[in-house]
Design brief:
mainly beta; disordered C terminus; four-stranded antiparallel sheet; 35 strands
C-alpha cells in the first residue's frame, strides 16, 4: 500500500526519532559494577593446638584490585608486614582470588578481617569488605599416645678419650614414653686392648630418660691401661661388675646394636676396647744380704693393678720366673756369687743389680798374740756373712788368708824388730787395722815393760810373776780380742 506523501513523511520522522533514542540509551548506560568479597574458614592443628584461619578475598572485575587498610584480629595474617596484597582480576568467567593465612592461639572466640579494594584502572574503591569466623569451638593438641619401652626411638652420641668417655642419649621428637628409660655408661679394667676377660668395673654413670627429661648426658673416667667402655639400656642394678668367661653380657642392650633394645637408638656403636699398657704395676726392690745373696722383693700392688704379672729373674746360670697376683708380692733369693742380676716383666723396664755389702753386716775379729819368738794373727769371720780375705803384714812379710763364714784362720810370723802388724780386708771397704804389739823384755825372761808410744790395738802378751819362798814360777799368757768396725753406708737403686 502506498502512503500519501504526508503520511510517509510522518513515518519517516517517527522512525528517525526512535533510532536516535536507542542510540542515546547505549551511550548513557552506566558502567558495569566493581565488587570484592571475603569469606573465611578455620581448622584446628591438633599437633600444636593452633587455629589456622584461611581468608579468601575475591575480585569480580577484569582488572587487578589492590588491598588497602587491611586489618585482622586477634593476630596479623602471614606476611602482613610486607603488605602490597593484590586480588587478581577475574577472567574466563571466574573471579580472581587471594588467599591469606592467619594463625590464632588461645581462645579468642572469633577472628575478623576488614579491608578496601582499589582498582587502579579507573580509581574505583570498594570500601565495605568485612568478615568474621567463629572460634568458639575448643582447639587443643591431640593427646599423643605413649609407647612401650620396646617401641621407643632414640638417638645418641658416644666417644672415648685418654681420660674418660662421654655419651648423650636423647628421645626422638614426637615420641612419648609410657615409662622412664634408664641408660648407663660403664668403664672396665681389661687384660688386653682387644675384648678379653676377666674385666673389672672401674667407673659408671646412670641416668633416666622420660617425657620431661628427654635427653641425658653421661660421663665416666677410664683407667690408665687397657679398658672396655659400654653404653647400654639399663640402670645401676643391671651393671655387670665383673665380666668373666661364660658370664653375663650386655649383648644387644648396647646402643648402636643391629637389633634388640640397643637397636632402638640411632648413632655410633656404643662400645669401645683399647689401651696402650697392661693393668699391672710391676716393681722390684733388691736387697743385698750379708751372706752374699740378694733378696728381690717383687710386687704388683699399684692403683691399676688388677691382673697377675710374670717376673723373670736371671743372674749367670740362675733363672727363675715368678707370677705375682694383683695386690700381692713375692720374694726371690739369688744365690751369692751368681753375678749381675736382671729382672724383667711386662710393663716395666728391665732392672739390673749387683750385690753390695750392707752397712750393718758383722765384721771379722782380729786377735793378736806375740811372745819373744812368734807373732800370731788370728782372723775370725762371724756366721751369716761372705768369706773374708785378710791381707796380713808384719815387718817385710805379708800373708793372705781367706776365712769362711763362722770360721777362723791363724797366721804366724817369726818375731822381729817390728812393733806392729797391719791387717787389711780388700773386699770389705774398711780401713786397715794397725795392731801395736806388746813390748816384751825378752832378755829378762820375756816380761812386758813400758807403754806404747802411740795409740794401738789392745794386745795381751805373756805375763811373768814370782812367788817368794821357793814357790814354782807360774807363767800365764792370755789373749785379748779386738774388734774394729769401720762401716760405710751402701746405696742401691732398684
Amino acid at each position: 500500500m502506498k502512503l500519501n506523501s504526508p503520511l510517509r513523511r510522518a513515518a519517516t520522522v517517527l522512525a528517525g526519532a526512535l533510532i536516535g533514542l536507542g542510540g542515546a540509551a547505549v551511550v548513557t548506560a552506566p558502567a558495569s559494577a566493581h565488587a570484592s568479597s571475603v569469606n573465611g574458614t578455620a581448622v584446628c592443628d591438633t599437633a600444636t593446638g593452633t587455629r589456622i584461619v584461611t581468608w579468601t578475598l575475591s575480585n569480580d572485575y577484569p582488572a587487578d584490585a589492590t588491598v588497602a587498610d587491611l586489618k585482622t584480629a586477634p593476630t596479623d595474617v602471614e606476611n602482613a608486614a610486607e603488605g602490597n596484597f593484590v586480588i587478581p582480576k577475574s577472567e574466563h568467567g571466574r573471579n580472581g582470588e587471594l588467599t591469606l593465612t592467619q594463625k590464632v592461639t588461645g581462645d579468642p572466640g572469633e577472628a575478623t578481617i576488614s579491608f578496601k579494594s582499589i582498582w587502579s584502572v579507573d580509581g574505583y574503591v570498594d570500601q565495605d569488605n568485612t568478615a568474621r569466623v567463629d572460634l568458639s569451638e575448643p582447639c587443643a593438641p591431640a593427646e599423643t599416645p605413649c609407647v612401650e619401652a620396646g617401641k621407643a626411638a632414640f638417638h645418641h652420641t658416644f666417644g672415648v678419650t685418654g681420660n674418660g668417655s662421654t655419651a648423650t642419649v636423647s628421645l626422638d621428637e614426637g615420641v612419648k614414653l609410657c615409662d622412664g628409660e634408664p641408660v648407663t655408661l660403664v668403664s672396665y679394667f681389661a687384660p688386653k686392648p682387644q675384648f678379653s676377660v676377666p674385666q673389672y668395673e672401674f667407673d659408671h654413670d646412670s641416668g633416666s630418660i622420660d617425657n620431661e627429661h628427654r635427653s641425658v648426658t653421661l660421663n665416666v673416667d677410664v683407667p690408665d691401661c687397657n679398658t672396655q667402655v659400654d653404653l647400654f639400656f639399663g640402670g645401676e642394678d643391671d651393671i655387670i661388675s665383673e665380666i668373666t668367661e661364660g658370664g653375663p653380657r650386655y649383648g644387644d642392650k648396647k646402643l648402636g646394636s643391629n637389633g634388640g633394645l640397643g637397636g632402638r637408638s640411632e648413632g655410633p656403636q656404643g662400645w669401645f676396647n683399647g689401651g696402650e699398657k697392661g693393668c699391672q704395676t710391676p716393681a722390684v726392690e733388691p736387697l743385698s744380704q750379708c751372706d752374699g745373696t740378694v733378696a728381690l722383693n717383687l710386687s704388683n700392688n699399684g692403683e691399676i693393678s688388677r691382673y697377675a704379672v710374670d717376673f723373670t729373674v736371671k743372674a749367670g746360670e740362675f733363672t727363675k720366673t715368678v707370677t705375682v697376683a694383683a695386690g700381692k708380692g713375692e720374694t726371690v733369693t739369688v744365690p751369692a756369687g751368681a753375678g749381675t742380676i736382671t729382672v724383667s716383666a711386662e710393663g716395666m723396664d728391665d732392672v739390673t743389680y749387683d750385690w753390695a755389702a750392707p752397712a750393718d753386716c758383722a765384721l771379722p775379729t782380729v786377735i793378736v798374740e806375740n811372745d819373744c819368738d812368734t807373732v800370731a794373727i788370728t782372723v775370725e769371720n762371724p756366721e751369716g756373712v761372705t768369706p773374708a780375705t785378710a791381707k796380713i803384714t808384719y815387718g817385710d812379710k805379708t800373708e793372705t788368708a781367706t776365712v769362711a763364714a763362722g770360721k777362723s784362720e791363724k797366721v804366724s810370723f817369726e818375731a822381729g824388730k817390728a812393733t806392729y802388724a797391719t791387717v787389711e780386708f780388700p773386699g770389705l771397704n774398711v780401713e786397715p787395722i794397725k795392731a801395736t804389739l806388746e813390748k816384751l823384755d825378752c832378755d829378762n825372761g820375756g816380761g812386758g815393760g813400758g807403754d806404747s808410744d802411740k795409740p794401738s790395738l789392745p794386745v795381751t802378751g805373756p805375763v811373768a810373776g814370782g812367788i817368794a819362798g821357793g814357790a814354782a814360777l807360774l807363767l800365764i799368757a792370755g789373749g785379748v780380742l779386738f774388734l774394729m768396725a769401720r762401716r760405710r753406708k751402701i746405696t742401691f737403686t732398684a
